[in-house]
């Protein structure tokens, strides 16, 4: 698409927004229902595209993308009226009689740029919030998830008019051209390097930006935890989507004694969830492309593999892999792993674990598997992250009422449910003062004795 076409697309969406039709609750409801219909009527095609791009099985596709989105949309439909309701603001005595309300206003035309790892969820979840808030949108799916991108570009125009939601496919060139235009909000999900490009482009138009980024989410485990349950939950969260999840536990931090007990339980949990040969398991996904496959296999060099490690370039398969004896300086600990490799890192105790967590800045989530109330309090007070989750990992994304987002290097702003609605709204105060009685006269010059008493 030439750049002038992008301008036309944007103008079409803006004209529709400016007409005011998107403000009504009926418009918002109908568009949310359309998105739901798109997901329902094309579930099989969407799941097939996810299978082609990521080897994702149908159950996982439903759990983390199609059904996940439908429940987000149902939540938005249930709460929309309440979210849109103006909230009363208190007025001080000095301004009385007067009233104030906080009114959620739609922003306008928003640009949503998604990554490849959950290519449908991470495009349509912000879209649901944007529509609920009464905006029109341009969607830029990730070119890396080729099948999903093509299918989204085919389906969206069947369910939305060009002045409601538009799709622009493409990579760096197309995104760069899109970013040159002025939007009312940009919602970007992806890596921190590109986030800097997005922020710079947004600065030219003073466009507000939400950044959903990544990082190294640690999982602290101590002996007060139920280690068998912990192992099952860690294995599920880490190897879901073959480890290509922004909030996957990146590595485990534990004392030697805990690791010795946890290791066989993790190995058993991998066998239970994916069988003796995970390459034959329908539940186990594949690496998105050769570039990421090579990066991950490269990360395994010089690592002590205690389980897994098998890989097959042709199939883009890397077995669920546990490694240990990894120094802080090892490449595995220098970047977000974003694949099915789980380092088990020995630390002396909680203080050392906290020092390690803090060394990586503020991740999307800090996980802790513990029953110890002091440990929980200490982690809450001495670490910072998008979310703090006890005795579970990744699952918190399934609750529409839990705001999802990062802080610092892991991002800014939040999505899902009410938080997503607010992201795509401006909370505009509307204040109304009556002409009579004219109490403001009391604070106007010439200042008399009344004001001096104040
Ligand atoms: P990606 O390569 O698909 O890129 C994301 C988007 O940025 C794509 O739409 C792509 O076209 C665009 N893009 C790439 N280069 C660009 C450039 N130079 N200029 C403008 N746009 C450009 O995905 P990715 O970045 O590899 O995604 C993985 C990262 O995303 C990981 O760090 C992961 O943790 C993070 N992530 C975060 C979340 C979250 O919700 N916080 C969710 C998923 C992934």
Automatic annotation (TrEMBL):
Under the heading PROSITE patterns, the entry gives: ALDEHYDE_DEHYDR_CYS (PS00070)
Aldehyde dehydrogenase domain span:
14-428
Q: Which Gene3D superfamilies match?
A: Aldehyde Dehydrogenase, Chain A, domain 1, Aldehyde Dehydrogenase, Chain A, domain 2
A UniProt-annotated Pfam family? Aldedh
> What InterPro entries does this protein's entry cite?
Ald_DH/histidinol_DH, Ald_DH_C, Ald_DH_CS_CYS, Ald_DH_N, Aldehyde_DH_dom, Aldehyde_DH_NAD(P)
The record's keywords, sorted A to Z, are:
Oxidoreductase
What's the domain of life for this entry?
A: Bacteria
The record's listing under SUPFAM superfamilies reads:
ALDH-like
Family recorded in the similarity comment = Belongs to the aldehyde dehydrogenase family.
- What PANTHER family is this protein classified in? ALDEHYDE DEHYDROGENASE, ALDEHYDE DEHYDROGENASE TYPE III, ISOFORM Q
User: Know the name of this protein?
Assistant: Aldehyde dehydrogenase
Write down the species. Lysobacter soyae
């Amino acid at each position: 698409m030439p750049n002038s076409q992008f301008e036309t697309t944007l103008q079409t969406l803006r004209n529709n927004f400016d007409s005011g039709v998107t403000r009504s609750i009926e418009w918002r409801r109908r568009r949310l229902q359309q998105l739901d219909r798109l997901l329902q009527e094309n579930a099989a095609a969407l799941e097939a595209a996810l299978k082609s791009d990521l080897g994702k099985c149908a159950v996982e596709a439903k759990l983390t993308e199609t059904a996940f989105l439908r429940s987000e949309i149902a939540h938005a439909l249930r709460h929309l009226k309440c979210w849109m309701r103006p909230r009363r603001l208190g007025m001080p005595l000095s301004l009385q009689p007067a009233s104030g309300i906080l009114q959620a206003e739609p922003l306008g035309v928003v640009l949503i740029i998604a990554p490849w790892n959950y290519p449908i969820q991470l495009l349509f979840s912000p879209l649901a919030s944007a529509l609920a808030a009464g905006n029109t949108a341009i969607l830029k799916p990730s070119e890396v998830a080729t099948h999903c991108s093509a299918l989204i570009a085919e389906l969206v125009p069947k369910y939305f008019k060009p002045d409601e939601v538009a799709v622009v496919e493409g990579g760096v060139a197309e995104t760069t051209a899109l970013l040159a235009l002025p939007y009312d909000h940009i919602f970007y999900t992806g890596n921190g390097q590109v986030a800097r490009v997005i922020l710079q482009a947004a600065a030219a138009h003073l466009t507000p930006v939400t950044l959903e980024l990544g990082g190294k989410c640690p999982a602290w485990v101590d002996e007060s935890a139920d280690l068998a349950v912990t192992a099952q939950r860690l294995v599920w969260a880490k190897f879901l989507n073959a480890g290509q999840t922004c909030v996957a536990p990146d590595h485990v931090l534990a004392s030697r004694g805990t690791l010795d007990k946890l290791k066989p339980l993790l190995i058993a949990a991998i066998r239970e969830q994916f069988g003796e040969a995970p390459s034959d398991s329908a539940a186990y996904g594949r690496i998105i492309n050769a570039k990421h496959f090579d990066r991950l296999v490269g990360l395994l060099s010089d690592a002590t593999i205690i389980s897994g490690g098998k890989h097959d370039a042709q199939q883009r398969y890397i077995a669920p892999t546990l490694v240990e004896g990894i120094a802080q300086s090892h490449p595995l600990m220098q970047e977000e792993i974003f694949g099915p490799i789980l380092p088990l890192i020995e630390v002396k105790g909680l203080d050392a674990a906290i020092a390690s967590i803090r060394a990586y800045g503020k991740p999307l989530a800090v996980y802790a598997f513990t029953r110890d109330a002091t440990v929980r309090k200490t982690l809450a007070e001495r670490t910072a992250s998008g979310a703090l989750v006890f005795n579970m990992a990744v699952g918190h994304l399934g609750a529409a009422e839990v705001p999802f987002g990062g802080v610092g290097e892991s991002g800014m702003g939040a999505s899902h449910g009410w938080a997503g609605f607010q992201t795509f709204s401006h909370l505009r105060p509307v204040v109304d003062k009556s002409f009579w009685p004219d109490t403001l006269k009391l604070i106007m010059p010439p200042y008399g004795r009344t004001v001096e008493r104040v």
